[in-house]
Design goal:
The structure holds 2 protein chains of 2 kinds. Chain A is an all-alpha fold. Chain A has helices at about 5-25, 25-50, 60-80, 100-120, 125-145, 145-150, 170-195, 195-205, 210-215, 220-245, 255-270, 275-290, 305-320, 325-350; strands at about 155, 245-250. Chain A has one domain (about 5-295, about 300-340). By secondary structure, chain B is mainly α. In chain B, helix 5 (about 145-165) packs antiparallel against helix 8. The chains are: A mainly alpha, B mainly alpha.
Chain lengths: ~350, ~300
């Protein structure tokens, strides 16, 4: 896709994001807040899978780690004690504002992801898929077990979010802007990372690890870095999620979420950061519309969304491996070539004359 | 914690062997597919759950246990072959990550379909074995455990004999070792791969049917068991059939004993413990107990 087309798409997306709050009701607005949250997680996942060629079936779990970190930062030891948990003494006494808790949660998750990446980088493909799958399955169980910090199976409620600084907008609006502003910043970060030196190293490992290592790219360092960065993104998404829902329990981030995240990253388009928006839209709206199709007057079973997701995924893998972004590219490409031809025709005529 | 009793210790071991034999069948199914198609089938557990539901429906329509059992295995075989032919074959030569994503797609489709067709409520599946215990030297062993163990191990032995003594089995082994050479020798490689998927589906169905009476049949029944099977397959060496069986039995017994006698682990952290085993093996000895060391060629 040319820079111009990308620019137009980006501008259209930004315009839509600004316009939606004017039109949408509060419920619809919250759905678009989730789109932003999933978009952030998908940016991270895309860095790992799309640009570095590693696979993660555990990104929902990393969102969960970010969410739990944010919950602990926001409540602090006194807040946790008030919910009936019995937190250890090394936790911070007082809670902090979400605006500090969100980046901190991202940082904590990033560090945990980096540490997980240290042994995991010895694994490739299937083994890494298994290892991350293991993380996704065990996180809810571990969260249930260590209930002194996590509140256990009963979960923990957070104070309802409020609009800060006395701004004159409703809380759902604030959460919407907060999520999309974060998404915007992180999109920029991801874009800068991917287009620069680091991104080149990541892609070179993806496209041929042996060749990359032979050319002096440290495969270990860059793979762990990708894991760390991508977990940090997931952590921020998890933090925003827990603030939006203002409740967390171990089943908020099940294996299904991890799997659906990977599915939507593929559907949106691996190796395309903006494709994440399509992925996130699918993740939020596909379950709603596949359960209650808009035109037909009946409801499907609660299981319909996952069937539809799976069928989409399989079709996509078979027919259009580039995802939605790849499909768009295929549509745009001929138009671009057509435009280029038309543009060059007069000059050719001029030459003939 | 109650006092330590030798009889209880042996009971834990026998029930560990029973559950371990279920892990072993499923792990063997994973190995079978890994050796033929070079992919971990993430949908293996869901395929097993689906076929167990088919068995439940057959029994619900009045079939008695063993006819339903055999019919289910046949259906499972057909399903496995069909999945390979239709969905796996087109991505056979694509990168590993694409094949993993394909089996993930299968995972969610089958999981969703199961819930869609049969609902989320757990169903009770009859056990083919009498609900009794047999007393062996003061240790009470349930016939359920013995039956499970025997059926799973018998299926493993039948499979081994098939690979060892039949020409079809030989052809399948040759494909796993060198598919290009086998093709030149006249082996129909594509059909051998499909056969591998079919047999794996049968093993999965057996594991599902054996697990159902104790685990209760619900759409996520195999979710936990498949994770143990992953760990077992990795422990034994992902490309080693013997490894899968030994790994499954070892894991079943170990996890059972740890859950009972180590307070830190308990009931809740059994699964994370198995996963820790998986991670440790992957990091320290990626080829597992019996696997081949893979040397990357530049």
């Amino acid at each position: 896709m040319t820079a111009a087309v990308k620019g137009v798409l980006l501008a259209a997306a930004v315009a839509l994001i600004i316009l939606i709050p004017q039109r949408a009701g509060e419920f619809r607005l919250s759905q678009f807040t989730y789109v932003a949250i999933y978009f952030i997680a998908l940016l991270g996942l895309n860095i790992l899978v799309g640009y570095n060629g590693q696979i993660s079936l555990g990104h929902g779990a990393f969102m969960g780690i970010g969410a739990y970190a944010a919950m602990i930062f926001i409540l602090g030891r006194e807040g946790l004690t008030a919910t009936g948990a019995n937190p250890p003494g090394w936790l911070l006494e007082h809670g902090m504002r979400p605006i500090f808790a969100i980046p901190l949660a991202g940082l904590v998750t990033g560090v945990i992801g980096y540490l997980f990446g240290l042994p995991a980088l010895r694994l490739a493909g299937v083994s890494l898929a298994l290892a991350t799958f293991a993380v996704a399955v065990s996180l809810p169980l571990i969260a249930k077990h260590y209930d002194s910090v996590t509140g256990g199976g009963g979960g923990v409620s957070l104070p309802l979010p409020t609009t800060p600084f006395g701004w004159d907008i409703s809380t759902p609006h604030w959460l919407y802007y907060e999520a999309w502003a974060t998404a915007g910043i992180l999109f920029l970060v991801a874009w800068l990372l991917v287009r620069g030196r680091v991104g080149r190293a990541w892609r070179s490992i993806r496209d041929g690890e042996v060749a990359a290592v032979s050319s002096g790219v440290s495969s270990a360092a860059y793979k762990t870095l990708a894991f760390g960065v991508s977990s940090a993104f997931a952590g921020v998404a998890g933090a925003l999620f827990v603030i939006q829902v203002s409740y967390i329990n171990p089943d908020t981030f099940p294996l299904t979420l991890s799997i659906l995240l990977l599915v939507s990253a593929v559907l949106g388009g691996l190796g395309s950061l903006l494709g994440g928006i399509f992925g996130a839209l699918l993740l939020v709206f596909l379950p709603i519309y596949s359960q209650d199709p808009p035109v037909l007057h009946f409801s499907f079973s609660k299981q319909a969304p996952s069937v539809v997701f799976g069928v989409f995924l399989i079709l996509m893998v078979l027919v259009a491996p580039g995802g939605v972004a790849g499909l768009l590219r295929q549509v745009v490409q001929p138009i671009k070539i057509g435009l280029a031809r038309r543009g060059s025709r007069p000059s050719r005529l001029a030459k003939e004359e | 914690m109650t006092a330590f009793l030798w009889s209880e210790f042996f009971q834990q071991i026998t029930s560990g062997l029973a559950i371990g034999s279920i892990f072993a069948s499923l792990a063997l199914a994973l190995v079978l597919i890994y050796r033929t198609t070079d992919v971990i089938n993430f949908a293996q557990g869901e395929m097993a759950t689906f076929t167990t539901y088919i068995a439940w429906s057959l029994m619900n329509h009045g079939l008695s246990y063993w006819p339903a059992f055999v019919l289910t295995l046949l259906i499972a075989f057909g399903g496995g072959v069909g999945i390979e032919r239709v969905l796996i074959r087109p991505v056979e030569h694509r990168p590993e990550i694409v094949m993993i994503i394909m089996t993930i797609g299968l995972f969610i489709v089958i999981n969703g379909l199961t819930g869609w067709l049969w609902g989320a409520d757990p169903k009770a599946v009859d056990s083919p074995f009498p609900n009794k215990t047999i007393d062996v030297a003061g240790v009470a062993i349930s016939t359920q455990d013995i039956g499970t163990f025997c059926v799973c191990i018998a299926s493993v032995i039948v499979l081994w004999a098939f690979f060892r003594f039949t020409s079809l089995g030989l052809a399948m082994r040759s494909v796993a070792v060198n598919s290009a050479a086998s093709r030149l020798m006249g082996v129909r490689v594509g059909w051998m791969l499909a056969l591998g998927w079919g047999l794996a589906a049968v093993l999965g169905a057996i594991a599902g049917l054996m697990a159902a009476p104790t685990a209760f049949l619900d759409p996520n029944m195999m979710l936990v068991i498949i994770v143990y099977a992953f760990a077992a397959a990795v422990l034994g060496g992902i490309d080693s059939p013997i490894g899968a069986v030994v790994g499954g039995l070892t894991l079943g017994v170990t996890v059972n004993l740890l859950g009972r006698y180590v307070d830190l682990v308990g009931e809740e952290l059994k699964l994370p413990t198995a996963l820790a085993v998986l991670l440790l093996v992957l990091v320290i000895r990626p080829q597992g107990l019996f696997g081949r060391v893979i040397v990357r060629r530049v």
